[in-house]
Automatic annotation (TrEMBL):
Keyword field contains Protease: no
Extent of Basic and acidic residues compositional bias: 182-204
Entry superkingdom: Bacteria
UniProt keyword list: Coiled coil
Coiled coil: 117-151
Name of the protein in its database record: Transcriptional regulator
Length: 244
């Protein structure tokens, strides 16, 4: 058995240990495998550089007790080993359950690692973009607050009239005349616009009325001219006829 004994303790090779136990090397190897199975420790016994088992004095004593117990009471080799090495089925079952309960650390392959890194980089980029947007909004709000404060200061400040502006001549009359001229021009523009707004029907009616009026005037003039032509005018006499 592996122990904390000093290195100078003598260890027996399989042949020497089998001779002390009075069994063959093959039987010793069989017993050793059963002990390793029952204890659940493949390195229960010391090993040489060539991986051959080495046995302490206590190991030989335990194997001797195991050999003698296996010949009594009809016990199997594993049952005898459990009694000697104080390993019960319950402890073995608990050990298996604990091993099954341990989380399995599964290693990710390179593709999964790259995918995870890409997702993390995208998340970081999104967070940085959100931070930049928030900073821009904060700067804009600060500027608006600054402008509002400046306007408020200007409104609260007293309005001083400049002496040079106060000394300027009064031009209210000139401005009034210009306003009147402007109003006259505006009236003309309005009239032109009103004339343009006349509908085509009104223009048509006006043209028809003018035509009828002109026709009546021409008819009246023709009648007077005809009566005048119907009157008999005295025959004209030559100058020599007027002497007689």
């Amino acid at each position: 058995m592996t122990s904390n004994k000093h290195d100078f303790e003598e260890l027996d090779a399989p042949a020497a240990a089998a001779e002390k136990l009075g069994i063959s090397v093959a039987t010793l190897r069989k017993y050793s495998l059963i002990v390793e199975k029952v204890t659940g420790n493949k390195d229960y016994f010391e090993r040489s550089k060539q991986r051959a088992r080495l046995y302490h004095k206590k190991d030989i004593d335990d194997l001797d007790a195991f050999h003698n117990l296996s010949k009594k009471d009809g016990l199997t080799l594993e049952e005898a080993a459990r009694q000697i090495y104080a390993v019960s089925d319950k402890k073995e079952t608990d050990k298996k359950r604990q091993a099954e309960a341990k989380p399995k650390n599964e290693l990710m392959d390179s593709h999964q690692v790259a995918k995870l890194l890409g997702a993390l980089q995208n998340t970081i980029a999104s967070q940085n973009e959100a931070i930049d947007n928030l900073q821009k909004q904060l700067n804009r709000i600060e500027k608006q607050n600054h402008d509002l404060l400046e306007r408020q200061k200007q409104l609260e400040a007293p309005k001083d009239v400049d002496d040079e502006i106060a000394a300027l001549p009064d031009i209210s009359g000139i401005v009034a005349e210009d306003d009147e001229k402007q109003e006259t021009q505006d009236d003309k523009r309005k009239k032109v616009l009103e004339d343009k707004k006349k509908s085509e029907e009104e223009l048509h009616d006006e043209i028809i009325n003018k035509a009828k009026e002109n026709a009546k005037k021409r008819a009246s003039a023709n009648v007077h001219r005809t009566l005048e032509d119907m009157q008999l005018h005295p025959a004209k006499k030559h100058w020599w006829q007027r002497l007689f």
